[in-house]
Specification:
339 residues, alpha/beta, Rossmann fold, five-stranded parallel beta sheet, 12 helices, 36% helix, globular
Length: 339
């Protein structure tokens, strides 16, 4: 009889990508089980759902979805009954940091679903909070989640294999075809100027200045990526340099976008879902952060990563200048200082 495992993970694009090492661990731990994710849908602001990231990866087998805001007890009961009828034996708790009473509330719901074994409930010690690292930064969200899953084994978040989106040959071929269609064989830099969090917005003026700097300093084409909501703002950038900029916002799905970003020489973007995609596929990247979150939590992994964060008390992300981003980009494009 096939065992069934329920994974509780709400969130959208970025939240799903940073949990990839945990999804890989769960699949390795339960290779012959049916894995379904309990997640929120639709997510706020039209952001991509978890399924847009994981469909086709083989890491999960299905979903149970609940509205982002559930206040109707009857709907919750129907959801619990549907999960109970599926007969899961174990739940894995992969939820963003919450107050303890909310964790207990979630645990009560999972019990209502008939699940007695729950892995990863952060109820003891500092399991709920982010730990401080030796460099003074807080541990990354991926590392905090992995600590909860210690009963299943250790997760090395620095191992590239644990970030594998398992892109199919069809998805990779589609991205290659799109690149060939819009820029031919030219090397390109992928940029994402959008972000769903207003404090993370770097400002259209800064992006205009950066793109002009890239035009002068780099031979690369510039491909703007993101969702449909980013299209109009990105078009304001692309129309000024029609010979260098191509706006693909809203024209590709999440996994095809990841495959395209994997072909880029460099990715530049704010703290956003596409930035986490770039980190997952291993593309060198420059990440522009605000103080929305403490430094470290959402920083991307990788050696070829430059994180720009306004550390000083009187600084904001507007203190990060286009020249700072341009210099970081040139450093990654030309790491040996070659001419």
């Amino acid at each position: 009889m096939t065992t069934r495992i329920l994974i509780h993970r709400p969130g959208s694009l970025g939240d799903t990508v940073v949990a990839l090492p945990c999804f890989h661990l769960i699949r390795r731990s339960f290779p012959d089980s049916e894995l379904r994710v309990l997640t929120n849908a639709p997510v706020a602001d039209g952001a991509p759902q978890l399924s847009a990231v994981l469909d086709g990866s083989g890491l999960i087998d299905g979903y149970f979805e609940y509205p982002a805001s559930v206040r109707d007890g009857r709907r919750l009961w129907r959801l619990a009954r549907a999960i109970r009828q599926w007969h899961p034996t174990t739940a894995v708790y992969l939820v963003p940091r919450r107050q303890k009473y909310k964790v207990l509330r979630d645990a009560a719901f999972l019990r209502l679903c008939g699940i007695k074994n729950i892995i990863g409930l952060p109820l003891v010690g500092d399991s709920i909070e982010f730990r401080r690292r030796s460099d003074g930064l807080l541990e990354r969200e991926a590392e905090r989640l992995a600590r909860w899953l210690a009963p299943l084994g250790m997760v090395d978040a620095r191992d590239r294999a644990n970030w594998d989106l398992r892109l199919s040959q069809e998805e990779l071929a589609s991205a290659r075809s799109r690149v060939a269609e819009v820029i031919g064989g030219h090397p390109f830099i992928a940029l994402c100027i959008g972000t769903k969090q207003v404090p993370n917005d770097w400002g259209i003026g800064n992006w205009h200045a950066l793109v002009e700097g890239l035009r002068q300093e780099c031979p690369h084409k510039l491909v703007l990526v993101g969702g449909e909501g980013d299209r109009e703002l990105s078009e304001a950038i692309a129309r000024n340099l029609p010979d260098r900029c191509i706006n693909l916002c809203g024209s590709m799905g999440v996994r095809e976008s990841a495959a395209l970003i994997a072909s880029a020489s460099l990715f530049i973007g704010c703290d956003s879902g596409p930035m986490h995609l770039a980190s997952a596929v291993g593309t060198p990247l420059v990440a522009i952060f605000s103080k929305l979150n403490d430094p470290g939590i959402w920083f991307p992994f990788g050696k070829n990563v430059r994180v720009l964060y306004p550390y000083a008390d009187n600084e904001t992300n507007q203190s990060i200048l286009p020249i700072d981003v341009l210099m970081a980009a040139k450093d990654l494009l030309n790491p040996a200082g070659e001419s």
